Amino acid sequence: MQAYVIRRVLALVPTLIFASLIVFITVRLIPGDVIDLMLSTNDIGADKKSREQLEAALGLDQPVYIQYFRWLGAILLDGSLGKSLWQNTSVMEDILHRLPLTFELGLMALIVALIVGIPIGVYSAVSQDTIGDYVTRSFAILALALPGFWVGTLVMVFPAIWWGWSPDVKLTPFTENPLRHMGQMAIPALILGKAFSAVVMRLTRTMMLEVMRQDYIRTALAKGLATRTTILRHALRNALIPVVTLVGLQAPVLFGGAVILEQIFVIPGMGLLLLEAVSQRDYPIITGVFLIVGVAVVFINLLVDLSYGLLDPKVRYR
């Protein structure tokens, strides 16, 4: 296991370098130019400088490949993601300040998806072709059909019109009032986890139906093993392997949904930071956010691979 982990971690290095190169170049292909934005504002300091002077001050006068190697060298040598072009603040500090909220939102959405999706998927498989099965499958289709941004907008607008209530637009820090903070995060987490729970439910049902038809399940039931024990201890454990894989694949999707919901519910997380940076063409923040997300996704997939050995004893890492 130790050798396997070391090999996987070493294999991640070229993957992350290649991903950083793609992100760094792609960000600079976004229409619009940060220099033009700065010169078009009413900032007196920017007006007094010529375009060449401003580019030199921001380090944008060098070719893109030199900017990339300078940026990559700062990461490898100093652990620095650079400074914001507008606020001149540390990108790493800005991300670390907002990362916990985005991580909390994604984790809560994942917990919602697993708590809702797995039990309903198991029930739907055990109750195949019954009314309950049809109802749960209809729920999954409905949850997939309703976009999260649309549901979030409805939650913000219609309760205010009908009942004079709307979610708080200012997030209460967890340290000040934990219950109020969790209550404010619960609504966007439920919306974000809605579609994912439907995917988990559908996959769990499919895999449970496949496993329940296996010979060892029929043998266990024929020997008199309780149905509940057979389902939970033998069938579900084997059916969860593809679900665990799905969790790793859905990590970027959860972040993408968090970007929109953070904007709707005014949650000062990485998603809101990314939207603000894109509108300002703040390249260091955009590349820093995508790099952190890429690192997180890669390591989540590594943890998913390692978890196979816990779910399936036949899986061995040598």
Shape: globular
In N-to-C order, the SSE pattern is HHHHHHHHHHHHHH
CATH topology of the largest domain: MetI-like fold
CATH superfamily of the largest domain: MetI-like
CATH architecture of the largest domain: Orthogonal Bundle
- CATH structural class of the largest domain: Mainly Alpha
- Provide the β-strand percentage band: under 5%
Category by helix and strand content:
mainly alpha
Number of strands: 0
Helix content: over 70%
The overall pLDDT average reads 80
Give the arrangement of secondary structure elements:
Layout: H1 2-27, H2 34-40, H3 44-48, H4 51-58, H5 64-78, H6 91-126, H7 131-145, H8 148-162, H9 178-212, H10 215-222, H11 227-249, H12 251-264, H13 270-280, H14 283-311
Describe the structure.
- This protein is mostly helical and 318 residues long.
- The protein has 2 domains: 63 residues, no CATH class; 220 residues, Orthogonal Bundle (MetI-like fold).
- Helix content is 78%, strand content 0%.
- It has 14 helices and no strands.
- α6 packs antiparallel against α7 and α6 packs across α9.
- The longest helix is centred in the middle third of the chain and has 36 residues.
- The protein is globular.
- The mean pLDDT is 80.
Task: List the defining traits of the structure above.
single chain, 318 residues, mainly alpha, MetI-like fold, 2 domains, globular
In brief:
It contains 14 helices and no strands. It is mainly alpha-helical. The chain is globular, with a radius of gyration of 24 Å.
